[in-house]
């Protein structure tokens, strides 16, 4: 089950919210845990058992780490718990990738049975690992209430696609939520904006990318290739940030705060800034649990470069079992090293608009690698983008795409700017404007429903990770 479906909007969500909001505070954790497990079981009836076992084991391990006064015992339990969670992630998500790679190296012809990947396993595994490490490092006390920890680990708004929030940031709100009319209204507003982002923008932009990608990447005209790359760049932003808006909105309806995961990343003027604004919970996770323990930037230049490349290779690998993701991660690692050690002073001297154009250009290139089915397809697509295939500048597909989607692409670019927030802020300044804004939100919801019922269902892009 996902947020932009009719069963969720008109069956699960209203029943859950009624039960949660009327329940006394002491019972809210139980309602939240049961509701979250039902939400997950709707789409993953078998893997909900894996999730429950993971939650129970992590809860037990953290308590043992917290209670033990012997460093060796604490380390042993921590390493054992990390190894079990990482093994489960590697087996469920990557064993096919490892076997395919080994088969290719050995020129073997064996076959194997693939398993469906549990939804959200990358996200909830990282939440478990952060909790275990924070308990081990003494940053947080281990939970003594299984319901508190279960509610954190299975919290359905963030279970499938994050944000990968920390236990320390959520425990107070989970145990002492403060839902009220104002938080509910703000949460509903945020949810509706996220729903519109997903259904009205991301899904429509995804059709452009699908159309462009349906043929051979080596046959694309230059402008068509760039239209497709721009469409996917906008699609993945509206898709993922739309989910995050819905997750934050749902949590706020319950009186619970989730961390922000996006801060207008496409307005960044450097790659460093981009990754401080895109998927913030993931980049901060790798910073706190991989980069800093390796020494961060408080080491020699050589070791700093090593740390950056390790973090970005792992970041790429986290996204999926495909060499394109590893190449994508290494691409960003190289860019960050060049930005810091080679082009830093030169970039700062450029006008801001040029810094932004260079950053946007590099980010668009990265999404082509990310979205391609394999490395050879990515290279062929990039060659078409840079006139290296000997193809036309424009062709019939170019004109068809522009004639049918130009307004959509313009709107996609415009709403990357803080246009919507500025309009909403001005409307809220007076009573009439506030009424008009509420009518606008209702219209967005109605239009989203119309699209949801009239179009083929499109899942969230990051649900596959």
From TrEMBL:
Compartment(s): Cell membrane
Keywords annotated in UniProt: Acyltransferase, Cell membrane, Membrane, Transferase, Transmembrane, Transmembrane helix
Domain of life: Bacteria
Signal peptide: none
Transmembrane segment boundaries: 6-22, 48-65, 77-97, 117-137, 317-338, 350-370, 398-419, 431-453
InterPro entries given in the database record: Ac/AlaTfrase_AlgI/DltB, AlgI, MB_O-acyltransferase, MBOAT_fam
An annotated GO BP: alginic acid biosynthetic process
Membrane topology value: Multi-pass membrane protein
Gene Ontology CC annotation, any one: plasma membrane
Major localization listed first in the record, in broad terms: membrane
MF term (GO), any: acyltransferase activity
Family listed: Belongs to the membrane-bound acyltransferase family.
Protein name (Swiss-Prot/TrEMBL): MBOAT family protein
Native species: Copranaerobaculum intestinale
Taxonomic lineage: Bacteria, Bacillati, Bacillota, Erysipelotrichia, Erysipelotrichales
């Amino acid at each position: 089950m996902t947020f932009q479906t009719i069963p969720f909007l008109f069956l699960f969500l209203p029943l859950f919210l009624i039960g949660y909001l009327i329940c006394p505070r002491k019972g809210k954790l139980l309602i939240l845990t049961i509701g979250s497990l039902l939400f997950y079981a709707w789409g993953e009836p078998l893997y909900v058992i894996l999730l429950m076992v993971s939650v129970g084991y992590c809860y037990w391990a953290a308590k043992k780490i917290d209670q033990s006064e012997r460093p060796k015992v604490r380390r042993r339990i921590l390493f054992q718990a990390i190894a079990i969670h990482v093994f489960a992630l590697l087996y469920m998500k990557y064993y096919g990738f490892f076997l395919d790679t080994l088969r290719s190296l050995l020129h073997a012809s064996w076959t194997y049975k693939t398993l469906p990947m549990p939804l959200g396993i990358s996200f909830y595994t990282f939440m478990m690992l952060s909790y275990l490490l924070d308990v081990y490092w003494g940053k947080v006390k281990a939970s003594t209430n299984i319901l508190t920890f279960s509610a954190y680990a299975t919290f359905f708004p963030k279970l499938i696609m994050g944000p990968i929030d920390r236990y320390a940031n959520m425990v107070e709100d989970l145990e002492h939520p403060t839902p009220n009319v104002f938080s509910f209204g703000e949460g509903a507003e945020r949810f509706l904006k996220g729903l519109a982002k997903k259904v009205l923008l991301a899904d429509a932009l995804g059709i452009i990318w699908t159309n462009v990608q349906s043929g051979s990447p080596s046959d694309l005209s230059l402008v068509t290739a760039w239209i497709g790359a721009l469409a996917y760049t906008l699609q993945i932003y509206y898709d993922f940030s739309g989910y995050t808006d819905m997750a934050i909105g749902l949590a706020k309806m319950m009186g619970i705060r989730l961390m922000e995961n996006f801060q207008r990343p496409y307005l960044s003027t450097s790659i460093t800034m981009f990754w401080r604004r895109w998927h913030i919970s993931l980049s901060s996770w790798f910073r706190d649990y991989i980069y800093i323990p390796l020494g961060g930037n408080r080491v020699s230049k050589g070791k700093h470069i090593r740390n950056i490349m390790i973090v970005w290779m792992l970041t790429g690998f986290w996204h999926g079992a495909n060499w394109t993701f590893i190449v994508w991660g290494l691409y960003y690692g190289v860019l960050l090293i060049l930005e810091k050690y080679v082009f830093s002073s030169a970039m700062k001297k450029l006008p801001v608009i040029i810094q932004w154009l260079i950053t946007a250009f590099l980010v668009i290139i990265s999404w082509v690698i990310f979205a391609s089915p394999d490395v050879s397809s990515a290279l062929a697509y990039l060659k078409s983008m840079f006139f290296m295939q000997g193809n036309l500048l424009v062709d019939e597909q170019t004109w068809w795409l522009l004639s049918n989607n130009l307004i959509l692409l313009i709107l996609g670019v415009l709403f990357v700017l803080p246009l919507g927030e500025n309009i909403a802020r001005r409307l809220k300044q007076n009573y009439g404007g506030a009424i008009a804004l509420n009518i606008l939100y209702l219209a967005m919801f109605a239009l989203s429903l119309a699209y949801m019922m009239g179009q083929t269902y499109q899942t969230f892009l990051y649900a596959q990770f």
